[in-house]
C-alpha cells in the first residue's frame, strides 16, 4: 500500500513539475522573464523531487518482522535447491542423495 502511495506521489510530483514548466513556457507572452524564472525553477525542483523519489523520506519503508522475512528467504532458497536436485535426479545427472538431503533440511527448518 505505501509503495503504491510513494510511487503515486513521485509520479504526481514529476507531472506537477513538468506542468509548471510548460505553464511558464506557454505564458511567456504574458509573463516577463523575472516571473518565468521562479516558476521554471519551482517546476524543475518538483520534477527532480519526483524523479529522485523524495517521497520515500516522508514515508519510510518500515519493515517489521524482519526475522520472518529472513526465514522466508531461507525457505525459498531451500525450495530452489530442492528443485535443482529434483531436476538433476530426473535427468539422471545425480542420484537421490542430494534431493533427500535437501528435503530433510527443509523439514528441519520448519520444525
Task: Name a few traits of the molecule.
elongated; mainly alpha; 2 domains; 111 residues
Secondary-structure map with pairings?
Elements: H1 2-26, H2 33-51, H3 55-58, H4 66-91, H5 97-110
Helix pairs in contact: 1-2, 4-5
Q: How much of the polypeptide forms β-strand, as a percent range?
A: under 5%
| Spans where pLDDT lies below 50 across 5 or more residues | none
How many structural units, i.e. domains? 2
Quick one: overall form?
elongated
Please trace the helix and strand order, writing H or E for each element. Answer: HHHHH
Distance between the termini: 32 Å
Helix share bin: over 70%
How would a textbook summarize the main sheet?
Answer: none
Look at the helices and sheets and give the structural class: mainly alpha
Count of DSSP strands? 0
* Whole-number mean pLDDT: 86
Q: Can you count the helices?
A: 5
Radius of gyration: 27 Å
Task: Please describe what this structure looks like.
With 111 residues, the protein is mainly alpha-helical. It has two domains: 2-58; 66-110. 79% of the residues lie in helices and 0% in strands. It contains five helices and no strands. Helix 1 (2-26) packs antiparallel against helix 2. 6% of the residues are buried.
Briefly, what is this?
With 111 residues, the chain is an all-alpha fold. It contains five helices and no strands.
